From TrEMBL:
The purine nucleoside phosphorylases catalyze the phosphorolytic breakdown of the N-glycosidic bond in the beta-(deoxy)ribonucleoside molecules, with the formation of the corresponding free purine bases and pentose-1-phosphate. Cleaves guanosine, inosine, 2'-deoxyguanosine and 2'-deoxyinosine. It is an enzyme of class 2 (transferase). This is Purine nucleoside phosphorylase. It catalyses: a purine 2'-deoxy-D-ribonucleoside + phosphate = a purine nucleobase + 2-deoxy-alpha-D-ribose 1-phosphate. Phosphate binds at S35, H70, R96, T97, H98, A128, S216. Keywords: Glycosyltransferase, Transferase.
Amino acid sequence: MAGLLDPLAVAAEAAAQLCAAAGVERIDVGVVLGSGWKPAADELAAAGEVLVRLACDRLPGFVRPTALGHGSEVVVLRVPAVGDGASRVVALLTGRTHAYEGVELWRTVHGVRTLAAAGARAVVLTNAAGGLAEGMRVGQPVVICDHINFTARTPLVGADFVNMVDAYSPRLRALVHKLEPGLDEAVYAMMPGPQYETPAEIGMLRVLGVGLVGMSTVYETIALRAADVEVLGLSLVTNLAAGVTGEPLDHDEVLEAGARAARECGALLAKVVRNL
């Protein structure tokens, strides 16, 4: 199907319909919520005025996420900014589509391409991640400083050579650390999923300097950098990765950790968005 359409054109049409539904000319900032982050949407919505809520599949190219813990709405907010007295138009995707759901790869980045086509110059990507680094705890937000793509796939097609140095904006990372001193940074590794990693795989990742592991975010970062959009990545440590504690992993554990940390993470998101 991807060969019969232009994914960028579909994103442009979705962006036009989203802006029209919200009654705005453009989106300033985008936010994508990962597993367990959905309750944080209420905290973020409380920081501003909701302009529109749409089921994502009302927009061209979108499909409803099937992974538990992911929402299926696009929420557009007007959020007051700090300092300049202005406001920011923020588009919030309450869930994402993963490659392991069996969709074409372009659909996994369609949401962020729509945000970019709508005018967003900065996008905050959140996810649930297994924590590998020594001292990490469940419920801890961590700033992503870089990534390793272990899927051997990319959403880019053709001779589209994209610079991935500083893929996770140093400017935005510095802003987060100013707002929330003491947050850790770590390298994020994307694995194909949906199976969790084996203890041997986690041992390999730790040797390579990885501190976070999950099944998303990397494709979106690649697509956003191809569109020259700044990226801020935030992981919520929802479990300690296989082999760290010796305990088996369970997706319910991921969702429960997200629910417990929702208020704190939502407040952090609101603070970041208001200061962008």
